[in-house]
Every structure is written in structure tokens, then in C-alpha cells.
């Protein structure tokens, strides 16, 4: 690729760098993205998250997300995932 130097002027993700070296469209659909590593939220988990949010949102001076994470029955969810899901809902 004679114009690769132009692409190198801008920040690249690991997936994009892989495509540049191995050829474009070398990744299968969904590979190399964070979406494939994060398990999707099930409807049951969404209901539990919503119930916990409504339970802890009125607590004064407390960290709502920390309280939700402490009582979330599904282990392995990060603070960022919980916040992102709450915003999405």
C-alpha cells in the first residue's frame, strides 16, 4: 500500500493495525472489537439492573453504581458496563 504513510499519521486501534498489515477485510464480522468481548445483557439482567437502580437512586451521599455492583447477581460486570447499560436503558 503506497499510501500507508498517510494512514500512520492518525491513531489506530489494534484491529485497524491488523487490517493494515494483513489486508483490508481480513477480520471477520465482529472480530477485533470490544463488542465481541462484552457479553450482551439479557432481559433478566436488565430487569434486575433497573430494580437495583430504582432501589438505590434515592440514597443520599452514596455511590449508586457501587451499590448496584455490590448487589448485582451476575458477577463480572464492570462499572463502565453498568453505567453504559443504564444510560442506554
From TrEMBL:
GO terms for molecular function: DNA binding. Pfam families: HTH_TIMELESS. GO terms for cellular component: replication fork protection complex. One of its GO terms (biological process) is DNA repair. This is TIM protein. It comes from Falcunculus frontatus.
